[in-house]
Amino acid sequence: MKRPTLEAVAARAGVSRATVSRVVNGGTTVTPELRDAVMRAVDEMGYVPNLAARSLVTQRTDSIALVVSEPPTRVFSDDPMFATVIRAASSELEEADRQVILMLAGTPAGHARVERYLTGGHVDGVMLVSMHGADPLPAAITRMRVPAVSLGRPAVNVNLPYVDNDNVGGAEAAVRHLLERGRRRIATIAGPPDMVGGQDRLAGYRAVLQGSDRRSIVAIGDFTRESGLVAMRQLLEDDPGLDAVFVANDLMALGAMKALRQAGRRVPDDVAVVGFDDIEAARYTEPPLTTIRQPFREQAAATVRLLLGIMDGGDVAPVVLPTELIVRESA
Amino acid sequence: MKRPTLEAVAARAGVSRATVSRVVNGGTTVTPELRDAVMRAVDEMGYVPNLAARSLVTQRTDSIALVVSEPPTRVFSDDPMFATVIRAASSELEEADRQVILMLAGTPAGHARVERYLTGGHVDGVMLVSMHGADPLPAAITRMRVPAVSLGRPAVNVNLPYVDNDNVGGAEAAVRHLLERGRRRIATIAGPPDMVGGQDRLAGYRAVLQGSDRRSIVAIGDFTRESGLVAMRQLLEDDPGLDAVFVANDLMALGAMKALRQAGRRVPDDVAVVGFDDIEAARYTEPPLTTIRQPFREQAAATVRLLLGIMDGGDVAPVVLPTELIVRESA
DNA sequence: CTGAAAGCGCTTACAG
DNA sequence: CTGAAAGCGCTTACAG
Fold first, then answer.
1. How do residues A1-45 score in pLDDT, each as one tens digit?
2. Which CATH number fits domain A6-49: 1.10.260.40, 1.10.1060.10, 3.40.50.2300, 2.30.40.10?
3. Keyword Plastid on this protein (chains A, B) (predicted)?
4. Rg of chain A taking only CA atoms, in angstroms
5. What are the chain B neighbours of A122 within 8 Å (beta carbons)?
6. Residue A251 half-sphere exposure, CB side, CA atoms within 13 Å?
7. Which of A151, A239, A255, B112 is a plausible cystine mate for A225, CB 3.0–4.6 Å?
8. CB-closest option in B56, B76, B114 to A76
9. For A44-74, what is each residue's pLDDT tens digit?
């Protein structure tokens, strides 16, 4: 009662294994009669090719891993980034007829397991999402010559093609907007120190303030709504006179606005708020959130194209997508 | 510049392939000297076993697929069920040293691709989550003798071991509670007709009402918050005199409470509300939601154990976990 | 158009 | 304890 093999199908159809292989793989050079006989045998026996055997000889698997370096709680959180990215990447990948394998690598043990899986040749390529600073995955993967790209610029010392949006430029635009509105004490809630995106946005904030002789006022969050709330409270305590805040992502901005409301500050009258991402919820806050739009979908699609291109021997140059200031009512 | 093979490592270490294989797989019957030589060669060459080749001979992959039959938008929605289940199942599976492969099968095309992947022998077993009525996956999988289990009772005609909670009993407890509180016109917002869990809860609701001569008042939702809101409006329009509603999941209950608030009905004074699931948000509604607790984590863990057991030749009897009425203030 | 044969990279009885 | 050899289930030049 084991699953039938090519051999068994060939025997039943009265042909060679090569012929069965040809019709199973859509080969065109088979006479209709043999073709029919094979098809019948395949149906009758319920034959399905063993993919391990096939990939052993073809040296390809037609699968791509989508590795998200976060624990499930964060991936399945209220941050719509993951859903958007995974959906866009999946549909792009499926269009290219590749199976998408989703792997969550949130813990050290999980990380090691994923590394073993990827370097073991189970996939033709890998797309890394949400990498953190000390991530050992890129090095291991590239050492094994598995084509890989990152959505988001990786930490400095790894040599990995990537797609990102212009985090620095976006942050600069946000802070400049605040300055143009006449704000004088502009604070920021930055992202986690081990994520490049967060750091780039902080750098953009600092660059503009330095150029205008303003003092930096910085609190750190971890991109969750709750951390935005906590950070905002911290900021208000440190500097009650602040009149604006640039928050490194919209989700934290939602938390920050809640903290401001609780502290009795009006937005934007007392404190102007600018976020980053332009998630859907940004349109429904009270008041609607001014933010930097980040093209998640295009980023994901571009990352997939970059990966597919590299697997095809193509260009490895990074791609950086522009961001856009979306002015609503919070600043 | 290709990746090194066992053969190459053997040549370098001056031993046979068999010996390399033994040390790589932790075989104990190798003299320390050879062992060291092999280890050194492995390190120097950066050898990593080709898993396709290994699984071809061992007939196992040590991977388990977690197939969620939903589109990304729903999996990554505000419904914490998916995160909870995926996390619990993953950690249980990793404890058993299995690689977890997450696959989203939300579209027909995706479904076909996943089926090909699973029947192609890429995994040792599969755990199905959130199956819908007409799902062809179970049949295809079992035909190929791939061990599989479902989290949630599958639609009637497939023969698939499963773990579920007592949906009927839970719904009955909810409605009985409403009756005991003296409610007379008890409506329900049911889940989608193609999902067994939703139907079982509806059956429980109907069973209790029939036993007490009450009329059923039914609206249908799809387990999302928004659908709960819409369904509640519908219900109020159909029967303005209703004084209680049993909602088939908490997320829809949140939507329903919003609709009630908008319609000027007080909870529980005018309309009592009971949900199902006991998600975290249920504790923070205004008023806190009375609901049926469903042990997501234990369910996921039990499903994994059932699968692992079956793969080990063990029992295939379904497991049904009890639910519990959690009385808060909404009813 | 079709088949015999080699080979993908491993593991595992079987001798020794 | 170690190695030669068979074999896992496929694909693909190569002849014919």
1. 578 999 999 999 999 999 999 999 887 778 888 899 999 999 999
2. 1.10.260.40
3. no
4. 26
5. 51-52
6. 15
7. A255
8. B76
9. 998 999 999 999 999 999 999 999 988 777 7
